[in-house]
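Methods — Computational structure assignment.
A single polypeptide chain was analysed. Its primary sequence is given first, followed by the predicted tertiary structure written as structure tokens.
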Amino acid sequence: MKIRGAVLNRMGVEPPYERTKPLAIEQVELDGPGPGEVLVKIAAAGLCHSDLSVINGDRPRPTPMLLGHEASGVVEEMGPGVDDLQKGDHVVMVFVPSCGHCPPCSEGRPALCEPGAVANTAGTLLSGARRLHRNGADVHHHLGVSGFAEYATVSRRSLVKIDKELPLDEAALFGCAVLTGVGAVINTAKMPAGATAAVIGLGGVGLSSLLGAIAAGARRVVAVDLSDDKLGLARQLGATDTFNAASPEAANEVRAATNGGVDFAFEMAGSVRAMDLAYKITRRGGTTVTAGLPPPTHTFALPQVNLVAEERTVKGSYIGTCVPTRDLPRYIELYRRGKLPVDRLMSDHLKLNQINLGFDRLHEGKAVRQVVLI
């Protein structure tokens, strides 16, 4: 079938993207679902820094590639072997398909699925197939989803069925921002009620972490960012303290306000500078968690003696260490009960042909989560 989608033909195009247009809205060919695959009519897709990092070349991927990894939609057709979904079901897409049998999957850690990681790096579906084509040549899939399009053919193992009562624009955010941010608090850090927490970087993932820390019962939640507007939103969402990271004394200010630092610091900005700040404001015996994705060449140095003598813990978190089929319905239920006001993270709704403008806003730090309605 012929569909419209946002195709990245080459990385590293300079902003402003509304002028240089790295994403071209093009007509491409989409194959129907093969064995274990599903055709989904896309309803909504969020704009995330993980998309932006492919556009600007920070995270190299093969091109041409149809971008978009945080999406929701409606099942249109099932391929052979898919018998637990039916046409009309609402689904959220997860950007790492889990094979179910590799060592990480067998240990209950589907976010680290080895075949899923190989497929994502190669720009294929979990099966190794490419279902997108243009002028007789393949177009690569983005993280097994390619959600900036009218339809997507994806692995069944990239989908989580959800209740139809949840609006699909809100549902899209659960596939990346919420799973990653809330999961970092609940699954990776296992933060207990009554702890103190800080979040550095208040994008969609960071603010989701902030909501997760509040929902988990943190007695104090510190928000840190370069944007005063985002700090204001963090206060509205329940942050007890806010600090602008531009201050040269930011680390000392946070430590002074929290009597030596917080129990858990969450780095969500994807920069070494943010990670350094997160580590510095973590107290003795505390845990620093990072879910930010800086360029692969960037490294973080820490004093080993400090790590040992203060019994510090530094942890990475990918997709919030989540089991999506378990956690996504839980987080949706928390949202419905008013414990995770995810809808307040949506900055704007866009049309597909406004997507380059949306990435300009994201690049400039002027948006939290913009959602493209397909």
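Note: The domain at 190-316 is CATH 3.40.50.720 (Rossmann fold).
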